[in-house]
Amino acid sequence: MYNEIIMVVRMRSTRSHTANRRSHFALKESAFSVCGQCGGAVFPHTVCRSCGHYRGRQVLNLEGKLAKKERKRKEKEKVLGKGGGG
Ligand SMILES: [Zn+2]
């Protein structure tokens, strides 16, 4: 007779409980600092993405990397062009 399984909700979460929990969920605006070299926005303790400087020193050779990328792209286009036309 008493072998039925009855679920009991023990902890009712009220609207105010939910709101209280969610009061800490807001996102903060991310902190930026200004690059001393190019004046762009950078994350603190991070190399500048646009000029490759960190604390006034050139760390990344972005121009060389860009040139390499461009060269690779052109080579790829060449190969693709040959294959497509062939
Ligand atoms: Zn910079």
Question: How is this structure best described in words?
Answer:
It is a single chain. This protein has helices spanning 15-22, 62-85; strands spanning 33-34, 41-42, 53-54, 57-58. By secondary structure, the protein is an alpha+beta fold. It has a domain at 31-79. It has a two-stranded antiparallel sheet. It is elongated, with a radius of gyration of 29 Å. Zinc ion binds at residues 35, 37-38, 40, 48, 50-51, 53.
Q: What does the main sheet amount to?
A: 2 strands, antiparallel
Average residue-wise pLDDT: 84
Spatial shape = elongated
Number of strands: 4
- How do the helices and strands follow one another from N- to C-terminus? HEEEEH
What ligands are attached or bound here? zinc ion
What proportion of the residues form beta strands (DSSP E)?
5-15%
Question: Strands, helices and their partners?
Answer:
Layout: H1 15-22, E1 33-34, E2 41-42, E3 53-54, E4 57-58, H2 62-85
Bound molecules: zinc ion.
Quick overview:
This protein has helices spanning about 15-20, 60-85; strands at about 35, 40, 55, 55-60. With about 90 residues, the protein is α+β, with helices and mostly antiparallel strands. The site of zinc ion has 8 residues, from loops.
Features:
two-stranded antiparallel sheet, alpha+beta, 37% helix, 2 helices, 86 residues, binds zinc ion
